[in-house]
Amino acid sequence: QYCYYLEKEKLTPSPSQMMSDEIVEIFIREYIKSQTTLEVLFTWHGGEPLLRPISFYERVLELQQRYAGNRRIANAIQTNGTLLTDEWCEFLRKNNFLVGISIDGPQHLHDALRHNHSGEGTFKDVMRGLRLLAKHNVEWNAMAVVNDFNGDYPLDFYRFFRDELGCRYLQFTPVVERIIKRGDGLQLASGRDGGGKMT
Q: Which percentage of the chain shows pLDDT scores above 70?
C-alpha cells in the first residue's frame, strides 16, 4: 500500500517504459567507465526486477564482461521474492547475485500493507521464495520497510529476522514521503510541488 512507484508513475508526463537494449548497453558501459574502484556493483531494483526475464540479465552479464576491462563486476537484486522459481535461483547462484528480499516482519506485520493485486497478503509467497533461495544456496539479506504500523512492534519485528529467519544482514528503510493536497486525487508531492508535510 505504501509503494511510492504506483503514484510516482502518475507524476511523470509519459507512461513507464522499459529501457531499450541500446540504452542498457550505453548505461552499463558508462557506469563501469565512471567508477573509481576495481569492483563495480550493479544493484537491480524496481518496481519488481524479476518482471524482466532471465534473458535480460543474461544480456546484462554479457555487456558487463564486454566493458569490464580489469574491473570485477558484482550484481545485487532487490525483489519481493514472490516470483522466485527454481530456474531463477539457479541463475542467481550461478552468477553470484546477492539477493535482497523485501519483507516487513512476521506475517501479521508484513501482510498488513504488502498485498498482491487480489488484495491478499504476500507473506506466504515471500517465505516460499526464501525457501527456494536456501534450497539453491543463494546468498540473501533482508530489507524491511519501517512504517507507522510495524514500527510499534520493534522486538517482534527484530526477533522475527534474527530468530525465525536466521537473517545475517538486515537493512531498515523508513517510509518518508512529502504529501500535499492535490486536485488530481493523488497525495505525493512531485519535485515541482512546494510545501506539504512529511509522512
A: 89
In the beta sheet, which residues pair with residue 143? 102, 171
SS (H, E, C) the chain: CCCHHHHHHHHCCCCCCCCCHHHHHHHHHHHHHHCCCCEEEEEECCCCHHHCCHHHHHHHHHHHHHHCCCCEEEEEEEECCCCCCHHHHHHHHHCCCEEEEECCCCHHHHHHHCECCCCCECHHHHHHHHHHHHHCCCCEEEEEEECCCHHHCHHHHHHHHHHHCCCCCEEEEECCCEECCCCCCCCECCCCCCCCEEC
Residue that the C-alpha cell 570485477 belongs to: 72
Residue 119's contacts (CB-CB under 8 Å, 6 or more residues apart) are none
Residue 142 burial (CB count, 10 A): 22
Which residues does residue 140 pair with via DSSP β-bridges, in sequence order?
99
pLDDT score of 47: 77
Cα 177 from Cα 198, distance rounded (Å): 6
Dist. CA 18–CA 16, nearest whole Å? 7
